[in-house]
Amino acid sequence: MRYLELVKPPRQAQAYNSVSLHWRRYHSTDIENLKKQSDSTESDNSVLATGVIDKESNEVLLYYSFAGSQNLARQYLSRLVSPKITSDNLRKRVEKVSSPLPKDASITELVPLPRDSGAFVKFKYPPLVAAKDFLNEIRSNVIEYDNKRLDNIFKRVFNYVWNKSPQVYTVKGVPWIEDLKRFPSAKLGITYEGNPLTEEELYVLFRRYGLIDDIKVSANGGGGAAASYVFFHNVRSATCAKHCITGMELNHGETTIHIQYVPVKKTNFLVKMIMDHTKIALPIILALLATFAVLIFDPIRERFIQYKITHSGHILDQYRDSRLFKLFYVPYKKLTDAVSSSYDYIDNQLHEVAGVKVKNSGDDYDDTSDDGNSTSTMQERKLESNMLWQERFEKSKQLKLWIKENIDTFIIVKGPPGSGKEEFVFDHTLASDAKLKKRVLFLDCDEFSKARSENSLIGHVASQLGYFPVFTWTNTISQFVDLGVQGLTGQKSGLSESKETQLKNMFGLTTQAIRHITDTDYQRYVQSVEKRNRKLKDDEKIEVLKQEEFLTQFPESKPIIVINKFSRRADISSNDFIYPLIADWASGLIQNNIAHVIFSTADVGSLQHLTDALPNQVFKTISLSDASIASSKQYICDALKLNDTVALDRCIAPLGGRMLDLQAFIRRIKSGEHPPQAIEEMVTQAAELITTVFLQGHKFHNDDTVWNPSQVWLIMKLLSKSDAISYDSLVKSPLFKKSQQTLDTLTALEKYDLISLERDKGVLDKISTGRPLFKAAFENIVSDVRIWKLYETEYLTNLIAIEVAKLTKFENELTSIYKIGKINGKIDGRIDYLSRKIEGSNKNIEAYEKEIKEIASFNVERKHNSFLGIF
């Protein structure tokens, strides 16, 4: 082979080779000629500026490699790292591994290559020493140094893994020292000037630098494209070969090789499989991601839900008895209290100078009215609780008894809005029992009902359940992903879930958390019994109860779920599904005997959801009514600090015992209004509310029954004269019938607190005013002649329309009978019946029309309501 002839020339060619080598020693290559031409006009001709190392006749250029070049960070940051690697440090290292050098030998130039973990070193050797002998001595010194360094088996193993042994090679070509973003790789691309080399020649040329995996020779080399490729086993070998061989002339100057790194394109079989089999890979990946998310986040969420149920206070409360906690927290608390109190002192001093009194952080808020009376919100709540507590003490005892009896504790607390149902359950019942108040989960359905977006609904539910972390932003992303997967595969990925499904999953995880709480208590009980039995004799041992029996005997082990403001329908129609969902979830807790459930509702229609969820369950119900007149009077007097109640007796009567109205009355008095003026304004506002909402056919909900204003007017007239009316007497009116439509209308009016329905054994019995204040408002509206004339005329007009519809129906039937009568001739009884009905409807129409004429002629000034005339 040509290259082999150059490396090991035969004897007859030695003279020619010696002359050729001698000629090339004193003649420059193309790169050197170009460098000399550019150097003529430049002042800086160093290797850093040109990338070429000059070499004299008695100098040799070696390449030292100290480590591999597989550190990507070192490669990309080489320009920043290179200033930190000084030539002095690198020179000392080269001298250390190469010592001892021959006498008069020295390093004349050193070019570090931080990116490649190596350096070019130019030596000047003594004139009496041959270059080959000098190079062999340096190689021997490097090998001997490495052998001394690896003096035990551990260092050898470490060196084998990390390849840290120093290596030195002779630079045979013209190295190109560049700092381009061409990072080392194990693949070298070779281009030729002249005749290309064969695989055998390339192997002989490159094998000394390391193990070669493959060699590829291209038949169409040239034009700047690589003609051959050499695949080394590691990057370090490729780096050494590139630096030592590039620019080398072979075959008597006929061939010059140039070497560059070629990035190795590795095939990612996982990515290839995904791209080639999208319909199979994407569903699998999404399923794995969903499984991973469940395995990671669901245990975390379950733990937060448990904490929400079992620790209603501060997160550090469970650690307050720990000595380690006291060691760090107590000094911190004292320091913060000292700083806080000092700030309060400074603020008070400044405001006292200005003549303004500032309340401290722990004081109650002072609400001072114009007449000098002042009370606090906390005091009002305390008074309210005390007054209601006296009247509802027995009901609170009953609620506690039902929980401790632990038999199907599915309890409903119902009452009109503002009757204090939430305070009754929490403050009067649960908070007063040390065991029951430890495990309470409170859900306010009003927030769910008013959520206007899917993310808002999920956020509210998660917040009240303690479901954390929750990623509401993933809903939007999952919809786009689902759409993209459907476009690629033709089927949905299932990643995007409806809000119903998401809430079901959240409540399902809450059920698991509740079950985990009960299981933990049962395990503690079992361990306690077993520990005690170890100390007892066989005949004295205590029998371990089964979990179901344990939960029956220890009701405090089961959490109490309080669902407040449960309703039949939501304010936002798209959220209507939440109430049946909560009812089904609560029924599951009761059936599994893992929780007590208390529903608080002002909407009797919502009980239908509970009936559907537990059709065979008899609910335990507590009805809260308004406070008595005596309690209401005492509450107002205590709040206003009055001793004389005679002046307030006639004002309190229209308010009844509804706490919201009592508080509104107290605020008006504090603002400076006199009692008669305050009650008159409240009645007027209630009358305007009723007229606007109920008498003008307002529609609360798209699915609600739209009541007829004439129906509301009739109920108002009847309730303005009596406290309650019977359902049987109401359905005698032509506007009401004993039908489901009438029941739906009355239920809708009850939902919005206009009326209150009383049932006897589940059957509708009586109808009363929804709020005590509304009775006075009814009287106010009915006594207003202008309003009375308008709606009384409309009421009679509707009655006439009903009678006209009856007449039309009877007349049509009578016409049909006359046609049939010509054939049979025996239908006189039916004709007489229809004739009487037609005559009766005519009389009713005449009576209604007469009343309408009388109403139109009635024209007097507006009358005041009777109870207001006393003022």
UniProtKB/TrEMBL annotation:
Which GO terms label this protein's molecular function in UniProt? RNA binding
- Specify the superkingdom: Eukaryota
Q: Coiled-coil regions in this chain? A: none
Topology in the lipid bilayer: Single-pass membrane protein
Task: Pinpoint the RRM domain residues.
Answer: 167-264
Q: Which residues form the signal peptide?
A: none
Q: Name one GO cellular component term.
A: mitochondrial inner membrane
GO biological-process terms attached to the record: mRNA processing
| Entries under SUPFAM superfamilies matching the protein | RNA-binding domain, RBD
- Bilayer-spanning residue ranges: 280-297
Q: Which UniProt keywords apply?
A: Membrane, Mitochondrion, Mitochondrion inner membrane, mRNA processing, RNA-binding, Transit peptide, Transmembrane, Transmembrane helix
Q: Where in the cell is it found?
A: Mitochondrion inner membrane
Pfam families in the record, alphabetically? RNA12
Q: What is its main location?
A: mitochondrion
PROSITE patterns in the cross-refs: RRM
Q: Which family does it belong to?
A: Belongs to the YME2 family.
Q: What is this protein's function per UniProt? A: Plays a role in maintaining the mitochondrial genome and in controlling the mtDNA escape. Involved in the regulation of mtDNA nucleotide structure and number. May have a dispensable role in early maturation of pre-rRNA.
What is the designated name of this protein? Answer: Mitochondrial escape protein 2
